[in-house]
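hey so u asked for the seq, here:
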Amino acid sequence: MTNKNKIIVGLLFAIAFFGKVFAVSETQTTQYQNGQISTSGNDGVKDSQLLPQAIAMAKQQAQSWGMNLTDYQHYQQLMSDTKYGTYYKDQNLDPNFVLAIAATDGEDYQRYLTQAARNEHDRDARELQVNRDFHNKILELYPNEKPIVVGGQP
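ran it, structure tokens below
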């Protein structure tokens, strides 16, 4: 598969992932030409704005995971048509973690693993802060209630 084809596959996956599903049938076709994806059917309707929207959405997703667009497209390709998608699609793993599992280069492995660890640390820190704030809010709202005692310990 050439790089151009990989990009197209990644973008098509992004479009499908974000709600634009392509159907190729006798009545509808999807084609890539001059940097744009267009669809047409019996009614002659074309949607040539899908590619820029898909790229923008993919960039936003990549950025949210601390990755570049190329790595995110690689992740999408892994999840769409390799064993990694079969094994990990329902596990809600950080894309960097999946890329680390699939990495064949030590440098890439370390980079993906480092970003996955950063993402996990940030998520854990936010969850712990919410837990502390929640506990404080309970004490503020119900200052005269005693905590539930389980096993003799307050």
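The longest helix spans residues 106-141. The first strand starts at residue 28 and ends at 33.
lmk if thats what u needed
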